[in-house]
From TrEMBL:
Pfam families: Glycos_transf_1 (PF00534), TreT_GT1 (PF21269). GO terms for biological process: glucose metabolic process. Residues 40-186 form the Trehalose synthase N-terminal domain. This is Glycosyltransferase, type 1 (Homolog to trehalose synthase). Homodimer. Belongs to the glycosyltransferase group 1 family. Glycosyltransferase 4 subfamily. Gene3D superfamilies: Glycogen Phosphorylase B (3.40.50.2000). InterPro entries: Glyco_trans_1, Trehalose_Metab_GTase, TreT_GT1. The keyword Transferase applies. GO terms for molecular function: glycosyltransferase activity. Its EC number is 2.4.-.-. Residues 229-390 form the Glycosyl transferase family domain. The keyword Glycosyltransferase applies.
Length: 417
């Protein structure tokens, strides 16, 4: 296991974007947890929403005086192929679960648990993120019997494959508490106690902070051949079958029938624990190659993503399944309306006909028509953008999530005592 490098994120950076009551509540919770040691464990330091959340949460907690560590699993491609199959199956579609897959999962988790033991650290509470590190629980109970274990599930479990859910539940039954992003996700998962906490974006991180006009102009030049003079629709997400880049291409083609010179940017990165990413990127790039107005971009800097979300006329998130989809709030925070699928956490973020539009996940034609509606009505697009900024400020910024998370952790530590 290894500890990712972190920035010197400070609590004071949020004073201009969050209300005083929320900030005071955070300080009070930090005082309550000041004598506790907290550990977060996940499977990758780069790519995907979990790593982004931890990259902000951990340093802010430390700045607040809560002793907090973050450790990332060490694993090979074989393990990540198993856990990606697990991820897909828990969201509804995956291969049969074999004994060899279970053995690979257990072996790598046992190795990581031993590495954690070698660190010699003791923690009052450990937060295990998603299914990948759950296999460490047997060893953690032996090594740290007094440690409270919280499982943070970030994925959509509304229609899981039964054999995978049963396998995961062997471990979730051992935790003290589970945190889910929506109540619908709890389902038949074996967890002793649960809470619902919506994820959030970090408004002061490079991807979401305000930018000077000169910075925006420079980045726009670097994003050539994209033209910011012509209409631009963008989708930003990992190259993952659930994100449905092919459906977004279909929606773009429908919108292009009515909007001259329309462009589409399909932007994504490669998560460290997702072996499917490169293959899907190549498939999407091949499909898009015949249209000079479609641009498939990968591994943009956070500032590049920030600028694209600001300067696009409409953002699309046409996911088939979505644990939450923080890229939606990222765009809305920048006053860019979003056309998104009515799945997972997306309808929590998009208020239909107020901050964007919701469509059925398989309705590429409807998505294209909603894009046209926004591109042809500047006043509506601007109104939706202002509504979007206010909605995200109230519900989906990091300080709100931190208050709710620290509330749960404080309650669990108090209960354990």
């Amino acid at each position: 296991m290894h500890a990712p490098s972190l920035s010197d994120q400070t609590f004071d950076a949020y004073t201009d974007v969050t209300g005083r009551d929320r900030l005071e509540r955070l300080r009070s919770l930090a005082d309550t947890l000041a004598d506790s040691r907290i550990l977060h464990v996940n499977s990758t330091a780069t790519g995907g929403g979990v790593a982004e959340l931890l990259r902000s949460i951990v340093p802010v907690c430390n700045d607040l005086g809560i002793d907090t560590d973050w450790l990332v699993m060490d694993a090979d491609d074989e393990f990540f192929e198993v856990t990606k199959a697990m991820h897909n199956a828990l969201q509804g579609s995956g291969p049969p679960l074999t004994e060899d897959m279970k053995a690979t999962y257990r072996t790598v988790n046992e190795q990581n648990a031993r590495e954690l033991a070698d660190h010699g650290e003791e923690y009052d509470l450990a937060v295990i993120h998603d299914p990948q590190p759950l296999g460490m629980l047997d060893q953690l109970e032996e090594m740290m019997p007094e440690t409270v274990i919280v499982w943070r599930c970030h994925i959509d479990l509304t229609d899981p494959t039964a054999e995978y859910l049963a396998f995961v539940s062997e471990y979730t039954a051992q935790v003290d508490h589970g945190i889910f992003s929506r109540s619908d996700y709890i389902g038949e998962t074996a967890v002793p106690g649960t809470s619902i906490i919506y994820p959030s974006i970090d408004p002061v991180a490079e991807k979401n902070r305000s930018l000077e006009a000169e910075t925006i102009a420079t980045m726009c030049d670097r994003l050539d051949p994209l033209s910011f003079e012509d209409p631009l629709v963008t989708q930003i997400s990992r190259f993952d079958p659930w994100k449905d880049q092919f459906g977004t291409l279909e929606a773009y083609r429908r919108a292009s029938e009515d909007v001259a010179d329309l462009q589409l940017a399909l932007v994504g990165g490669m998560a460290g624990d997702d072996p499917e990413g490169l293959e899907l990127y190549e498939q999407v790039a091949k499909e898009a190659a015949t249209d000079p107005n479609v641009h498939v971009l990968t591994d943009l800097s956070d500032i590049g993503v920030n600028v694209l979300q600001r300067e696009s006329d409409v953002v699309v998130q046409k996911s088939l399944r979505e644990g939450f989809g923080l890229v939606v709030s990222e765009a809305l925070w920048k006053r860019t309306p979003v056309v998104g699928s009515d799945v997972g956490g997306i309808p929590l973020q998009i208020v239909d006909e107020e901050t964007g539009y919701l469509v059925a996940p398989d309705d590429a034609t409807g998505a294209g028509e909603r894009v046209v509606d926004l591109l042809e009505n500047d006043e509506r697009r601007a109104r939706f953008g202002e509504n979007a900024r206010e909605h995200v400020q109230e519900h989906f910024l990091l300080p709100r999530q931190l208050v709710e998370l620290l509330d749960v952790l404080a309650d669990e530590l108090e209960y354990d005592q």
